Each structure stands twice: as C-alpha cells, then as structure tokens.
Amino acid sequence: MIEFKDAAVVAPDTGVPILHPTSLVLDEQRITIIGANGSGKSTLARLINGLALPVEGQVLVDGLDTRKYGSRVRRKVGFLFTDPSQQLIMPTALEDVMLSLRRSVRSKDERVKAALAALEDIGLGNKGDVSVNALSGGQRQLLALAGVLTATPTIVVADEPTTLLDLRWKAHVGALLHALPIQLVEVTHDLEAATRAQRTLVVDDGAVVFDGNPDDAVAHYRDLMYRKTVGTSA
User: Which label site among 52, 207, 215, 232 has the fewest CB atoms less than 10 Å from its CB?
Assistant: First the structure.
C-alpha cells in the first residue's frame, strides 16, 4: 500500500511549490495519473520510490518511509521512465538484464539463464547479444521493463512509458503493463489508456484536483483544460 501524508515538494533553487501537501492512500491494483505538462504528476509518481523526496510530510510504501528506507522501498517499487535510455546502461540487452539480477542471483551462469528467460518472456528472446542502441524504441522500452521486473517488485510506477512510441509499440507495451499481476501506477497523456484503471488522479498546478472513477476523471480533465484554454484566449 502507498500512503501520502501531507507530502509536499518545492523547487530547491526557488522554493516554488511543485506539489502542495498531498494525502492519499493508494491500494488499487491499477491507478493512472493524468495532467498537463508541468502539473506535478511526475513528481507525485517519483515520490513513490524515493526518486523525489518530500520537503515536508511523508510517503510510505508498505509502512516504509521513503526518506528513511529508500533502498528497501526501491526493492519494492520498480520505476519505468519515459525514455528507456535513462535506465539502460549496459552494451547489450542480455548484459543489461543481468545487471538487474546482480543482487538476487550470485552465480554468473545462473544470471545468464535468468536474463535469457526474462528476455524470452518479454518478447526479446532473440535480442540478447544485440546492442541496446540497435534496438527500436519499443524494444528498448521492453528491455527496460524486463530489467524492472527481474528485480521482482510488488509495485511498478511507469512515468509516461508509451509517450515516445509509435502506435504499434504503444499498444504492445501498454498491454504488457496492464497485464502485470502486481500494482501498477501509470502516469500518462493517453486518455484512453487512463480509463483502463480502477482509479484515476488528475493533477493540476501541483495538486490532486480529482480522485476517483477513471471516466469521470478524464471528463474532469477535459473540462479543466477547456476552461483554461478559453480563459487564456479570452
């Protein structure tokens, strides 16, 4: 379970609020977060595994404070970035997945076997020796997901994981994410994908302004953006 207890974030250089004090309990298996660019939704997501830390308040994952127990939290919470190049650091696909297994599988031979199995499961079974840079954008995102999943998290946070993908790969990666048997918190600009959840948060100007049914959340967000557009052009 994920708990926000009056968690707030400010810009370190200016002190400008990025996320106002926020209190939430997130225990549904499928949660989506939507909002305009710069609204604070990615900051909200990054708080869940300690990539961002609150300046006040707390974020707890299964009772663990992200500030005090960051490494333990990150073993529970896998994070998938928009751009997979932010988390793919080894030369080949096989080596990159093996890196994610280094703590849990001591034997190199066993790491190779486990990494090959993970690549097969994700649909990259014939790409083990291929350079990461030679993979397509969709394949790189699959590889990043394989690396996240080999660490056996109980929660995956995905920050706009399909934004850089074409329609085919967007559908493929999206389907894999939503088939995961663990909790998924997904930040997305894809409003159709946002409705494939049990609960949706709308973030605007650093605050959660709607929390509830996904269809209602999308309708609220559309109305919010319409009103802001009309107000700007008036």
Answer: 232
